[in-house]
Structures are given as structure tokens and as C-alpha cells.
Amino acid sequence: MGYEAINLIDKFARIDAQWSPRVVAEMNDVQFKLAKIEGEFIWHRHDDTDEVFIVIEGRLVLEFRDGRVELGSGEMFVVPRGVEHRPIADGECRIMLVEPRGVVNTGDAGGDRTAPNDLWV
Amino acid sequence: MGYEAINLIDKFARIDAQWSPRVVAEMNDVQFKLAKIEGEFIWHRHDDTDEVFIVIEGRLVLEFRDGRVELGSGEMFVVPRGVEHRPIADGECRIMLVEPRGVVNTGDAGGDRTAPNDLWV
């Protein structure tokens, strides 16, 4: 049988839009998504799930209502369920998101920054 | 409130044993574990869950009964539930495992390679 590694660099090269997470793998009901992001996102929260951010390349700021955390390459953070947050990246940043299948990027906020869900790359 | 990034390099520096996964984060019931591995592990499977391997540094071979996959830095693979596998690393390899809380490293096989579970670093 053929087994193939999932190469993150190769997957990123095939992502043609910012702020549009693409699924690269599933473990049970959990999805691993890659996203290219740049600039400011909107404030939102996910009431039903924690959300993991892992920075693969670049720098990411996660703003909270009462603080912030800055992540560089090889750093991660778990945003607890229900906590409002806003991702910001000064330059293009490449991140991996880990969260259950079905989570939408804009959470409770909706609006025109909502990306198509469950797109694979 | 204070928010702190989880730095994978810093965490690896604090892991003093090979083949002993250490938890660095949880998302819902899913744990993110780091492990330093070198040499051959034992054949085993996890009947109740898929298991994610992400190589942070080094090279990892996952052997299966009917094939194998080799992973370098920045590559990942999802071992489906129930599939027998054996990790092998020629030199020390640093990996992230993602799997539900409670999964034991030796799966169904047990034995003296079984590491303490739920150790955090």
C-alpha cells in the first residue's frame, strides 16, 4: 500500500488566498488546517471549542480583550472556548490551526470574512 | 491577564528521556505531546483513535505491515485507528504527537516500553 507524508511547505505553496484555512489532515473529528494570514482579522469567539494556533513561519499576534500573546515560528497557543480573540499578522504569516471539523473561521461573528469551510488542499 | 506562548524548542530542551511523550497543550480532550525518539520502537496499534505524527526536527520512519512512510522536518502523517505501526528513527528525532487524552504510547502491545502517561513539560 502507498503511504505519503503530508509536507507542510508543499501544501502552503498550493494555497492561493489569505485568511482561507485549508484542511490537510483529520484525526478522528479533529482537523488540521493551514492558513496564510496577513493584516488584522475580526474579533470573534468559538463557544463550543478550544482552538489551537501553531506558527509555522512568520509572526502572529493574538489579541484578547484583556491582553495579547505574540507567537513566532515554532510557537503555539490554545485559545480557550468562549474567549474573544483577534489574530493579527504584520507580514504574511503561515499557521496551522487545529480544531474540530465544522469550526468556521469567524466563529460567532460571521460576516464577509467568513471563509468556505472544509476546503482541502 | 498573562498569556504565554508555548515554545516547542524550549519544551524539548526540558525533556530528559527518549520515548517518553510529554504533554505541552490540550485542546478539548486532545493532547499535544512532544517526544524525543531514537532507534526502533515496538509494533503496536491504537484501536480507538487515529494518531498524528508531526516531525519537528530529524527524520522518522513509520513502518506498517504493508509499507512505510518516511517523514522529515515539517512533515506529518495520520496513522488510522487499528493500523499496526512501528516508529523508527536512525538519529534522535523530535516529534509532536496529537491524540486524545489517555492514549498510551505502546497501544495494545503494553510491555516495558510503556511510558508514564499524561506527564506534562
Description:
Two copies of one chain form a homodimer. Chain A has one helix at residues 8-13, and strands spanning 6-7, 22-27, 30-40, 51-57, 60-64, 67-71, 75-79, 85-100. Chain A has 121 residues and is mainly beta. The model of chain A has no long low-confidence stretch (mean pLDDT 97). The two termini of chain A are 22 Å apart. In chain A, strands 2, 3, 4, 5, 6, 7 and 8 form a seven-stranded antiparallel sheet that branches. The first copy, chain A, has one domain (8-100): Jelly Rolls, CATH 2.60.120.10. In chain A, β2 (22-27) and β3 form a beta hairpin. The first copy, chain A, contains one helix and eight strands. β1 of chain A pairs antiparallel with β7 (75-79) of chain B. Chains A, B: This is Cyclic nucleotide-binding domain-containing protein. Chains A, B: One of its GO terms (cellular component) is cytoplasm. Chains A, B: It is found in: Cytoplasm.
